Predict the structure of Late embryogenesis abundant protein LEA-2 subgroup domain-containing protein.
Amino acid sequence: MAEKVNQQVYPSAPTNKQPSKDEESANSLFDQELRQKKRIKLGIYIAVFVVFQVIVIVAFSLTVMRVKTPKVRLGTVMLQDVKTGNQTSPSFDISFTTQVRIKNTNFGPYKYESTNVTFTYQGVTVGQVSIPKGKAGLCSTKKVNVAVSVNSNALPISTTSTTLGSELGAEVLTLNSHAKLSGKVELMFVMKKKKATEMNCTMPIDLSTKTVQLNCD
């Protein structure tokens, strides 16, 4: 009987298999595609950032850096003393207090020069008050308290004998006020732009109730 010979099989040593040219080409193509995708993403991020910056700059230019003309107006008129004649001998001598308000809606102060507020009747100056130079802060209103006296001393006889007599008979005396303010708006402490503003107000004075209804433009 033939003897069985025990044969032990040993695993062969691992061999270092070199990648084929096709595998190398596929890996290189994959790396190129990966780098290209990264560049595309980076380009998209840069484009989004640039667009965002443009939007911010445009919005900043249209709001903060836009220079608007300040407004000057009279506040409430409080009559202090009212003396008037009659239709036969028409005249008036009136004193009142009010505020000159300079409204600045800019994102920077408005520095204005001194000026005068003139009060007229039928185009003739009947009173005047001075406004010293000053500054209205950013997005604020500067209020200047003034005391005013107006009278009919400078009116020609033709005016007093006709128009003034009629208004005193109707107990409504209509005055007008005018002021022009010149100055500069300062933005970001570097840019200064000249701005002038003007006020024209109609002031009907109700002599029976001693009240004034302002109409300004």
Q: What stands out?
A: The longest strand covers residues 172-187.
